[in-house]
Amino acid sequence: MQIELIATASEDSAYLPRVGLGTLAALTPPEDEIIYTDDVVQPFDLQRDVKDVDLVGISVDSKTARRSYDIAAAYRRRGVKVVLGGIHPTACPDEALQHADAVVVGEAEDAWPALLADVKRGELKPFYRPELPDLAGRPPPRRDLFTSKKYIPFQVVQTMRGCPYPCEFCSVSTANGTTMRFRPTDEVLSELRSLGKLIMFADDNVMIHRAYSKELFTRMIPLKKHWIGQCSLAAVKRLENVKLMAESGCKALFIGFESIDEETVKFTGKRQNRPSQYKDTMAMLHDHGISVWGSFVFGFDTDDPEVFDRTVEFGIDMKLTMALYAILTPYPATQLYRRLKAEGRLTDERWWLRRDHDAGSPYFVPKQMSRERLREGWVSAWTKFYSPSSIWRRFTLTRQSSWIQLAGFFPLNFMQHTLAHRKIAGGEQRFRSGVHIEETAASPVAQPQPEPQPARAKGARQLPIIG
């Protein structure tokens, strides 16, 4: 078979390879040919890029659902079988099946070989619901698919899945469960040895299990890698953890602060965060050469109209290298979504079917301000934090102890300054510019269609179609 794996993009998508699809490619029988298409690095044109393949697999999150359904519809009109998987189909399987021939609910590794065999027999089932897989003994992702120069220059590696924290707004446990599962450290280290110097860990929390992380990071020290990742505040408030991470090559961390207010973090269930400890924790990270990209969310029931300026000033005082500000989003199947729906506060119960998510948010009625005020405050936070004066203040306040802080600070911040003004404040779309977008629903329509793009001959040497 010829199989096309498609990573769809939203305006929030980063230039990162989808290692999940790379893993499915590695699990595909060698007689089958893989075509990899990344909608981020080369936006998929619905009039020109539909291919004459045997099967299409699309990775879907909630913000790419509309885009994924449009692409799926274009293929199904050609008679091509389409399989949808990922966090959104796992949360909304019945909806996803309306746009596909099959849906994988949960993690796909154990279902993929059986699904391919069913396709070859003409017996594709509507749903595949595998158990959460053991992460031991899995092949590494096919990195030969990820050749675009648009990707950030870090090799992406995953060591674990699952999260035990009961954050009301988070959708991680929807797809990966609340039980932590880890790859054997020997397998992770073997993969790391085969890669270059720059590593990005794709884990939701690189030190959620201290014994595992201690073994991995200690054994990484001789490898002399430089790595970045995501981590909770619960781990980095301990000096021994920060010291070990720095010794193993950690140069930057993405940390979900979510809020600077004690009442808010308690209300949302993120009790591992302690706003009163934020500054001391950041100082410790900076002392060990670790830059921080902080994430904050606006729109919690405890947020008042002054939260925006307060949060920006706090981020400057904490000397954050960068910050991300988000409007609270009710993702399907989360506790937040169920609560807001029960309270009658959702303004669009299927917001993910819109084509421009940014333009319509927030998709709920806040408690202490209007929807318009929430959006205005969100825009203001982005533009103020990435104003020239803020960038300079944060640079002069921070100890310049890592190459990311020294060489990368101004390029990264000026890039974010441009994003804040053009995209956040100006509404410019990065990925859809000049690309045909269907104006109809993702279902067959009576209109002339162009001829599909010819596929390569069976057995031909595959060159990834990723731009």
Automatic annotation (TrEMBL):
Any single GO CC term annotated in Swiss-Prot or TrEMBL for this entry: cytosol
Keywords, alphabetical: Iron, Iron-sulfur, Metal-binding, Methyltransferase, S-adenosyl-L-methionine, Transferase
Domain of life: Bacteria
Swiss-Prot/TrEMBL cofactor(s): [4Fe-4S] cluster
Domain B12-binding, first and last residues per copy: 1-126
Region (Disordered): 441-467
GO MF terms, alphabetically ordered: 4 iron, 4 sulfur cluster binding; catalytic activity; cobalamin binding; metal ion binding
InterPro entries (UniProt xref): BchE-like, Cobalamin-bd, DUF4070, Elp3/MiaA/NifB-like_rSAM, Methyltransferase_Class_B, rSAM, rSAM_horseshoe, rSAM_sf
Protein name listed in UniProt: B12-binding domain-containing protein
Species in which this protein is naturally found: Sorangium cellulosum (strain So ce56)
